[in-house]
Fold this sequence. Notes:
Largest sheet: 4 strands, antiparallel
Distance between the termini: 26 Å
Number of helices: 3
Number of strands: 4
Structural class: alpha+beta
Helix content: 25-40%
Strand content: over 45%
Amino acid sequence: MKRWSRAAALALLLVGAGCSEGAKLVQESDSGGVVTYPFKGENGYLFSRFRTEALEMIEKRCKGAYRIVREGEAIGRSRVVDTPGGSEVIGERRWGLQFRCKQ
Length: 103
């Protein structure tokens, strides 16, 4: 396994343990990183309000120019929510964007 793919896999695994909403920078290097965000549905990753937030985060991190190297579904998370009728497990799907800043 290549060095960057090991690092990306580790970063995506860590996302499952996190308790955050919205876009999140889960891996960072001098030349780029990985940002993930929640989505719903089969094509929801393109229309998620958090995609714009993720792209803005990448643009800010790269100070402008960047290239999306790879994107795909990342490891999401499940959480238990207590309701008046009992407990409910809610699953969250996340989409990952691996990017490289242009110099």
